[in-house]
Each structure stands twice: as structure tokens, then as C-alpha cells.
Automatic annotation (TrEMBL):
Source organism (scientific name): Phaeodactylibacter luteus
Isomerase as UniProt keyword: no
Catalytic reactions on record: GTP + H2O = GDP + phosphate + H(+)
Enzyme category, top tier: hydrolase
Pfam name, any one: SRP54_N
Topological relation to the membrane, as annotated: Peripheral membrane protein
Protein name: Signal recognition particle receptor FtsY
Length: 301
């Protein structure tokens, strides 16, 4: 997979280098492996977990060759990912059979929120679904405009009350629009302001409340968008947002632009939320469904 080339060459390349000239996995190799995982943004807690598991295997089997290490590591990572990524989607299935299905998209500015909404809308549209995008990020002038441009590119409906409008009101009315216009899905953008944690929490819960007031059982999905190139910042944001609201799925963007795909492993493990999509480019079709096995294979092939 071209989009993941960088991730691939890096993790695998580094490990191969680290074990060159060694035949068995010893403490030195494990130390090397630990720093490779940390420098690949797997995160400290998850790295320690992986190293512990491999150490146990090494202790049990006494003699583990460096050749077996890759296999072992691959198994451990797949297992870790499997704990929270219990379903591998086969296509862009809506998160609920409800009609309209309401998806709230959260995340800080610049992570690729608007782009991900556009790409997702394109997929649903291609399935013949009727889609509306709701411009709930009313704090940035560009946000409303950009979402509108995406709706035109996709050829789907767009609902906005302009800039400065109350985001909760936009969310409420987008849902009403979806009901009245017989839409299959409404994807609602939100402002990702992280001034203070309390602020974020209040804003998100207000939007959530107004969405469920507009339609019982909604939102059906809260999708958090994170930029994979930001490493530790992505972890911080995941913490803020999962603390502030019930995040049901993750989209990890810009995996084409980073050698550090490890962020996917750590974030899914630490925040116990499945990764649903990965962004591998700026184009409208460059959103992929996250497949844990394919992802891990791409790290090692
Ligand atoms: P927002 O502020 O979170 O809405 O971010 P945007 O959707 O405007 O995206 C910010 C920048 O990241 C834009 O230049 C996008 O084209 C770019 N971008 C978004 N997703 C991806 C991706 O998966 N790969 C790459 N290479 N760029 C992306």
C-alpha cells in the first residue's frame, strides 16, 4: 500500500537494523526494541505492555531468535489492536440503521476534520445515500466555507447558519433538515476549541444534547479525528476528547505523511476506542477503512 510506505519502511527497517548481527533476543535487543517503539509514537504505556509480553515469551521459550522477533511483535500488536478494534468494517457501513443516521465529528483545527468529513460523505454518496453536511464549526470563517466547498465537490446537501451561529443550534437544525429531506446520514462538523477542558466538555455536551433533542437516539456516532503526524499531541487530544465526551470511533489522518504509524497502536490501546478510518492523502478517495491485520502487515512487510 503506497500510502503507508513510510510507516512500513520505518518500523520494520529500524528493527531489522537493531537486530543485525544478533541471533537471539536478549536484553539489549529488548532495550533497542523499546526505544524503537517509543520513537515510533506507540506511547510509553503501550510500549511497556508490548515489551513485557515479549519478555514473557522469551523467558518461557528460553531461546527466541531475532528472526522470530518480528513474528512475535506482529502477533502482539495484532492482539493489542484486536482488543478494541473488534470489527473490521468491510465497507463504509453507516454506524446505525437509524434514518437519518447522525454522525458528530470532533477534533482540533488542522487535523483534517473537514477533509475527513468530505471523504466520508463521498463514500456514502457513492453508495447512493442522501447525505447532508452540517457546518457546526462556526468559530472559524474558513471552516464553514471549506465544508461548503466539500459538499459541492461531493454533490451532497449542506446546512449552515453562517459564522458565529450557535453550534448547538446548527447541530439541532441539521438533524431537522436531514429528517425533513429524507437524508440517510447527516455528518456534523464541530469546533475543536481546546481552551480549557471544561469549555470543551460544556460545548460538546451542549451539542450532543441538542442533537438528541432533535432526534431520539442521536448521535449514532462521535468520530474523533486525530493527525497521526503529531505524535504525542494526538495522545493529548485523544485524552481531552475522550474525557469530555463519549467518543465511539477514531479517524487517524495523514498516515501517508508520517513514519510513525505507531500512534495507531498506542491510541487505540490507551483510549479503548476503535480506529475506523485512516487518511492516506488529501484526495477525496484517500480515506481507507482501518483493517488491523492489513495495517500491522504494512508495518512489517
Ligand atoms: P481541519 O482544520 O481539521 O478541518 O483540517 P482540514 O480538513 O482543513 O485539513 C488540514 C490539511 O490537512 C489540509 O491541507 C488537508 O488537505 C490535509 N489533510 C487532511 N487529511 C489528510 C491526509 O490523510 N493526508 C494528507 N497528506 N493530508 C491531509
Amino acid at each position: 500500500d503506497k500510502g503507508l510506505e513510510k510507516t512500513k519502511s520505518n518500523l520494520f527497517g529500524k528493527i531489522t537494523k537493531a537486530v543485525a548481527g544478533k541471533s537471539t533476543v536478549d536484553d539489549e535487543v529488548l532495550d533497542e526494541l523499546e526505544s524503537i517503539l517509543i520513537s515510533s509514537d506507540v506511547g510509553l504505556d503501550t510500549t511497556v505492555k508490548i515489551i513485557d509480553r515479549i519478555e514473557q515469551r522469551v523467558r518461557r521459550d528460553k531461546y527466541v531468535t531475532t528472526k522470530e522477533l518480528n513474528e512475535l511483535l506482529r502477533d502482539e500488536i495484532v492482539q493489542l489492536l484486536a482488543e478494541h478494534n473488534t470489527v473490521d468494517l468491510e465497507d463504509y457501513t453507516l454506524p446505525s440503521a437509524a434514518k437519518p443516521c447522525i454522525i458528530l465529528v470532533v477534533g482540533v483545527n488542522g487535523v483534517g476534520k473537514t477533509t475527513t468529513i468530505g471523504k466520508l460523505a463521498h463514500q456514502y454518496k457513492s453508495q447512493g445515500k442522501k447525505v447532508v453536511l452540517g457546518a457546526g464549526d462556526t468559530f472559524r470563517a474558513a471552516a464553514v466555507d471549506q465544508l461548503k466547498i466539500w459538499s459541492e465537490r461531493v454533490g451532497c446537501d449542506f446546512y449552515s447558519k453562517g459564522m458565529q451561529a450557535d453550534p448547538a443550534a446548527v447541530a439541532f437544525e441539521t438533524v431537522q433538515y436531514a429528517i425533513q429531506h429524507n437524508c440517510d446520514v447527516a455528518i456534523i462538523d464541530t469546533a475543536g476549541r481546546l481552551h480549557t477542558k471544561i469549555n470543551l466538555m460544556n460545548e460538546l455536551s451542549k451539542i450532543r444534547r441538542s442533537v438528541s433533542k432533535s432526534l431520539d437516539g442521536a448521535p449514532h456516532e462521535v468520530l474523533l479525528v486525530l493527525d497521526a503526524t503529531t505524535g504525542q499531541n494526538a495522545f493529548e487530544q485523544a485524552k481531552h476528547f475522550t474525557d469530555a465526551t463519549d467518543v465511539s470511533a477514531l479517524a487517524l489522518t495523514k498516515l501517508d505523511g508520517t513514519a510513525k504509524g505507531g500512534v495507531a497502536i498506542g491510541i487505540s490501546d490507551q483510549f479503548k476506542v476503535p480506529i475506523k478510518y485512516i487518511g492516506v492523502g488529501e484526495g477525496i478517495t484517500q480515506l481507507q477503512i482501518f483493517n488491523k491485520r492489513a495495517f500491522v502487515e504494512s508495518l512489517f512487510e
